[in-house]
Structure formats: C-alpha cells, structure tokens
Amino acid sequence: MARHAAEHDVIGIGFGPSNLALAIALDEASRQGAGLDALFVERQPRFTWHGGMLLPGSDMQISFLKDLVSLRDPTSPLTFINYLHKKGRLEHFANCRTFYPSRIEFNDYLGWVAGHFADRCAYGETIVAVEPDRYDLPVRSLRVISRTESGREVLRRTRNIVVAVGGMPHVPAVFATLGDHPRLIHSSRYLDRIGAPGLAQDGARIAVIGGGQSAVEITVDLHDRFPGAAIDLVFRGHALKPSDSSPFVNEIFHPGFTDFIYDQPGDRRAALVQAFRNTNYAVVDPDLLETLYRILYQQRVEGGARVGLMPRSRIDATAATNAGIAIDTTDLFAGTSQRRSYDAVVLATGYERSTRPPFLEPILPYLEVADLDRTYRIPSHEDFEPHVYLQGAAEASHGLSDTLLSVLAVRSEEISRSLCDRMRRAHG
Q: What cofactor does this one take (predicted)?
C-alpha cells in the first residue's frame, strides 16, 4: 500500500450514471471557478451500464431528455442530443419519431460521456474500506482503500466521499441455499451466463422467476434466443400488470417532486411511495406485455406450449440435481404442489440497496442513523468534518425517483453545490 497517498477534495465510489452525472456537475463548477479535485473509483474494468441486460430490441422506459444533464442545462455539450449529433445519427434518430432510444444506444451514450472523464476515474478497483484518517477528534479527512484486480491495495485520502454503487442483486432465501450454482443466473448477469452449454439444445427447460419488466424481457429473449427450449415464467401475482406511465402520474418523477416527498413526515412518505409502486415495481411496459401475449396466442394457433405462465406460485424449496435445479412450487389458490426440474433458473428478483454499505463500517460510529438530509448527505457528529453522500439509496426519504435516471441532472447539481459550499467554508 502506498505510504504517501494522493489527496482529493472528493472521491466518488462507483462510476455509473449517478456519479457520472456528478462528474459533469463538478466539471461545470470548476469552469465557474469553484472547482474541486475529484476522483472516481469503479470496480468494473471499463464503463458499462447494466451490461447483463443490454438485450436486443429493449428500449428505455424514460425519455432521452432525462439524460445526465438536459433537465438542468440543455445547452451542455454532454446531452444525448449532442451525442447523436457527434455520432452522425441525429437526423436518423429524429426519423424514428420516438423519445425512447434502445437500451444499447443509451449505454453507448453513457460510455461516450464517461470517455470525457477517463482521466478522473480509476477503473478495475474495488473499495475495501473508508476509514478516518486519524482516530483522534476532530476527524478532518478520510482514508479510502481499494484493491485492484491484481490484488494490490491503493490508499487515497479525501475530504468527502459520494457513494453511488447501485444495488446488490437480490437472491431470495429459497435460492440462496444453492450458493453459486452455475445454472442459477441473476438478471444482472443474464447475458454473461445465458450461453452456458446445453441451454440451446432442443428440450432444454428454463425457469424465469419474477413478475416485473426484467422477467418478461428475459422470457421474450429466451423464446427468441433458444427456439428449442421450454420457458416457465413463475410469479406470485394473479396476472402480469402494466406499468403506469401516464403523464399525470409520471410527474412524481419530476425533480421538483422530491421536495414534496422530503417535506412529509415519515408515515406519509411511506404511504406515497407505496401508492405509486405500480410505476416501477412488479409491473411491465404495456407494449412488452402485448408482445408476450402475442407469443402465447401464436402458441395456441400452432398447438405448442414453449412458453408457460405460472401465476399465483409460491416457491417452497429448491435443490441442485444432476441435470440442473429442481423447484418445488405451490399454487396459492388451488393448494396443489409440484416439482419441476430445469436446466437453468433466471432470477429477475431485483436489487437490494443499503444506506450503509459494508466498506463504510469503520466510520459508522461517526454517522447518524437518521435519514439523509435534503442534499443526500448522511448526517454526522459535529466532530466529523468530512461529508458522506449517497446516491440511489434514499427512496424512503426522497421518493421513488431516487433509484432511477429521472433526477440525475438535478440531484448531481444539488450535491455539487453542497460540496462546493462545504469546501468554501473549510477554506474560510
């Protein structure tokens, strides 16, 4: 580990869309004379956004205007529109007459923006710990320790950190007993692992677990990818439900709605989040539902049954077998149980997000348990001077939009302004 560590005003942990938007906001502040020395640390070897789910034909579910910067500054050179212009596709995109680019294209846009900040990101490093630089009070700076892919530890010092590590794949307890079974695939790694030997053969059986957007996208992709495979979509609900993206409801994702949510007492916040869950959780884009329904109807016409729906299903147990994975299910209404064996199981079961990632453990005694403040900072003791911000983990206090792309442009400016104000006060 280096003895003389590099020092930065702020270190961003993770370099996905949230901290990428922050990099833009900090760069803007720098050009206005309030610049900070910022570095970002990313565990992936290169920029990729949800690489495991960049499925052919999958589109974004939000407008391209909700890119990294447009809602704050549509004249920025880093808008999606300027990306199209620089790539020579602006007129062709206009001819598509859509606000919703493909997920593959939007990932390319994000990577194009990330390329502008390549000198400010250390790729291929996993954060091990964030520690006080000194354990006597007051704490004025932090030690950020990371590990490279070769196993070398890197030490850096900083006055502030912004954590944006996204969610960890959620594996239901009934599947956790299978450990790292090679045929158990979370949707986050779908494209990386779905090419396992044997899945393309006629007669292969694959189960998809979940009733939301990713589950249906994967089911349709499997149908197209493996013509000889049989796919079961297993979920607890009575039916697959459409997402509500109507214009009035969609206003809950406006950045200004964050203030309304944050100003409510805790019980009202929870009630509001629950009331609008059908905009984001266990729901499916209506166009995709129609695609799946047409597949099922065509099966009826042809007399086949390659894709099967298993609604109202509770998964009671799983077991590794010589052929793959066995799943025991119970129909919650009929009360009947059955066991089916699969060559692979895909978990479209979402993600878990924590306001206290494990690498923050050394500084937890200095932090408060309360919600994040309005600027996404974790409140801390008065003798702990560094600011610790979290992006994408404040749904309970800031609303459903916090885990989505909708507020990136405005949230990044709020955090940037808070950081600049804090450093201005520190320097008198």
A: FAD
Angle formed by the axes of helices 408-426 and 17-29, nearest 10°? 50
Structure tokens, 319 = 């077991």
Query: Tokens at residue 201, please?
Result: 């053969």
pTM reported for the whole predicted model: 0.94
Q: Could you report the per-residue pLDDT of 52-64, keeping only the tens digit for each?
A: 999 998 999 999 9
Of 347, 364, 393, the domain-final residue: 347
Domain match, 331 and 377 both: no
Cα–Cα separations (whole angstroms), residue 318 to 232, 322, 324: 15, 13, 11
| Inside any domain, residue 294 | yes
Residue 183 contacts residue 189 (beta carbons within 8 Å):
no
Could you tell me the residue range of the domain that residue 58 belongs to? 6-167+353-426
- Other C-beta atoms within 10 Å of 7: how many? 14
pLDDT in tens, 369-421: 677 999 999 999 999 999 999 999 999 999 999 999 999 999 999 999 999 99
